[in-house]
Write a structure and sequence with these properties.
Layout: H1 52-57, E1 59-62, H2 70-86, H3 90-93, E2 105-109, E3 113-118, H4 129-153, H5 159-165, E4 179-186, E5 193-200, E6 206-211, E7 216-220, E8 225-227, E9 238-242, H6 244-249, E10 259-264, E11 282-290, E12 297-298, E13 318-319, H7 320-328, H8 338-357
Antiparallel strand pairs: 1-9, 2-3, 3-4, 4-11, 5-10, 6-9, 6-11, 7-8, 7-10, 12-13
Helix pairs in contact: 2-4, 4-5
């Protein structure tokens, strides 16, 4: 098994040397609950010494079972398909734009990234179909298994949570809530680094992130700073993130892992013989986002145990799709254009002010993403 080294790296990888946030992006921290501890489990592909981080921080690492690991091999095939797709002319990629914007199809945010969001097999470009179908099945089965184990840690049967994910573990003709995204983040030169995905928390159940080079950073609530998780382990490996839906379904025993993506600068490259600057480098990333299947009923009475405690906000007579819409409508989308992002941010701020003026419940306005 490959070894992940969290605390034996040179600066800035050590937790003790985390960058302290210089703005208002530092996430709020949920106070510890006075409840029985989670039941201990052996979570697959997560090293024993890293398993506690998933419930404590909302993130952890995924370590492959060697280079023949099916998750690793399928991700490599998907990276190859993604690089070939992004190298195609814009005129070709434009054909995969949809009316759903960043929720499905090809999108581009100038100065940050371009990406394609896959939701159904029929709307998947031909060059992606085989690699995406294989990866979706393997990643979907893994996250579904992991979700069942997290249910057991709460004193619930596995199916109490996997009922939300079972319909979503294969890429087929029917659209589900779950999505697969392949990103190409722009390289950056001239400064120390550039944030190409703002600080946010995912909206769904669990997210699996695999990058071909470092860029993902997670927030360490103990050190109160951003931790460059992908620089902290020997590659290849991945990262797992808790989303907001799982937070609500677990009564905050699992809380979302705040994260961002940063484009690091490499040592200055030499210009070629013609004097032209070197070609821009990219970071490619695969993000598999497991969301709760929209038609599945939500009843927190059936999710309550001595470990979860009584739900602060009981939910009955709703479905997972209602839950997702409530979460999404309280946050702005970091994967839309900067102009639309700012409009959404302003509208949420105005809504918050109106509710405060009327004496109603406060709406939380903070960074979010459309990749729950």
């Amino acid at each position: 098994m490959l070894c992940i080294k969290w605390r034996k790296q040179k600066k800035p990888e050590r937790l003790e040397t985390l960058e302290k946030p210089k703005d208002d992006h530092a996430p709020s921290i949920t106070p510890a609950l006075s409840l029985p501890p989670l039941r201990p489990l052996d979570l697959p592909k997560i090293l024993l010494e890293h398993q506690f981080a998933l419930s404590d921080q909302g993130w952890s690492t995924v370590t492959y079972d060697g280079l023949n690991d099916s998750l690793y091999k399928s991700s490599e095939a998907l990276f190859m398909a993604g690089k070939a797709f992004f190298d195609r002319p814009v005129s070709y990629k434009d054909g995969f734009k949809t009316a759903k914007g960043s929720e499905e199809g090809w999108s581009r945010v100038e100065g940050e990234k371009e990406f394609i969001t896959l939701r159904t097999l029929d709307n998947t470009p031909e060059e992606f179909k085989e690699a995406a179908s294989t990866y979706w099945r393997i990643a979907g089965e893994y996250l579904n298994q992991l979700l069942g184990l997290l249910a057991r840690s709460l004193g619930l049967p596995a199916e109490a949570l996997t009922v939300f994910s079972d319909p979503c573990i294969e890429l087929g003709p029917e659209r589900t809530a779950t999505m697969l995204r392949i990103f190409r983040y722009e390289g950056f030169e001239g400064q120390e680094s550039k944030i190409v995905a703002e600080p946010h928390k995912d909206l769904g159940l669990l997210s699996l992130v695999i990058g071909d080079s470092p860029g993902l950073e997670v927030f360490d609530r103990h050190a109160k700073g951003w931790f460059p998780i992908e620089r902290s382990y020997n590659r290849p490996a991945g990262s797992i993130l808790v989303g907001r839906q799982l937070q609500l379904l677990s009564n905050s025993r699992y809380t979302p892992g705040p994260h961002l993506v940063r484009s690091y600068t490499d040592p200055p490259a030499q210009a070629n013989e013609s004097g032209e600057p070197p070609a821009c480098k990219y970071r490619y990333s695969i993000v598999f986002v497991l969301r709760a299947h929209s038609p599945v009923p939500v009843d927190t009475d059936k999710l309550t145990t001595t470990i979860t405690g009584d739900f602060k906000t009981p939910m009955r007579n709703i479905v997972a799709g209602d839950l997702f819409r409530d979460i999404r409508n309280s946050h702005y989308n970091i994967n839309t254009t900067i102009e639309k992002r700012n409009e959404q941010r302003q509208k949420l701020a105005e809504k918050k002010q109106q509710q405060l003026s009327a004496g109603g419940p406060e709406i939380r306005v903070e960074n979010a993403t459309s990749q729950p």
